[in-house]
């Protein structure tokens, strides 16, 4: 799990081939456009969710637990329990992906949350207990051991008001990534995606499973199909104004038809390591199934982007503390003070605003 100007198609393709990734050239070509300012869309403040896969799953948990009053639900694919890395790369690698150092202690993580709560660095227990949650893991995952998904489910059972708020899903023959069901008219061939059992490739897995639709239906049970299946618009926006270490220059937002008029909810969707536009073109921001559900239910989808660097060569979200000050013995990456958490919340606030800030 472990320079953002858009490269030429040829250079990007060579880099992906060297990494063993297969991405359609059309996906790379679609990234070549000037980013706009993230728009103010008067989005709803009451119909929001955050979802993610792999490092994005860990970050989705961090965002939801830091600011639970701003989200109705959290969806986590192929990740482990909240707070697992505890600011340590060694723990991240050896206890939160593999369990060579044993399984993480939920009691220890509860104590971590309680310390944060006492200092006002996460949301309160009442707001946390009101969340709806969806947890998925592939039983053939060789990157994040499935037992870590089991531990996350147990952690959430202890935290939520009752079991009816939690849905746990498993896919027996699926590897590490985000399973998708490609529409019949898709221009993307299944062979261009990751293998269902092996994972890998783009980590967007051609498994004929609509995990996105199942997850969002669970997280937003009150939402019925509100609009016909019409195409929205995928916009590239400048992330530079939301300054945080580890963020790429450009992020993406999917805006369904009519959402410019306001009151649509927002789903923050966080890619995993090696799944950013920098790595796999627009495969994640177009092919997960989130946009199809968003079109039918009038839900904006925000796709922030992490970037690769010397400290973070695979372009992961910061779930172990690399983006925080180097002098901190206990980085606050999983709190309201976390650099990336703060930037993501600022993006959500922009979408909920009625006008752009004055320059």
List the helices and strands and how they pair.
Layout: H1 9-18, H2 25-29, E1 49-53, H3 55-66, E2 73-77, H4 89-94, H5 106-118, H6 125-129, E3 132-138, H7 146-159, E4 166-171, E5 178-180, E6 204-206, H8 211-219, E7 233-238, E8 250-255, E9 265-270, H9 277-280, H10 283-287, H11 290-297, E10 299-303, H12 339-352
Parallel strand pairs: 1-2, 1-9, 2-3, 3-4, 5-6, 9-10
Antiparallel strand pairs: 7-8, 8-10
Order of strands across the biggest sheet?
4-3-2-1-9-10-8-7
Rounded average pLDDT: 89
- Radius of gyration, in Å, reads 19 Å
Distance between the termini: 38 Å
Derived from helix and strand composition plus strand pairing, the structural class reads alpha/beta
Largest sheet: 8 strands, mixed
User: Which segments are poorly predicted (pLDDT under 50) over 5 or more consecutive residues?
Assistant: 3-32
Task: List SSEs in N-to-C order.
Answer: HHEHEHHHEHEEEHEEEHHHEH
Total number of helices: 12
Explain the overall architecture.
With 359 residues, the chain is an alpha/beta fold. The chain is built from 12 helices and 10 strands. It is globular. The protein starts with 8 loop residues before the first helix and ends in a 7-residue tail after the last helix.
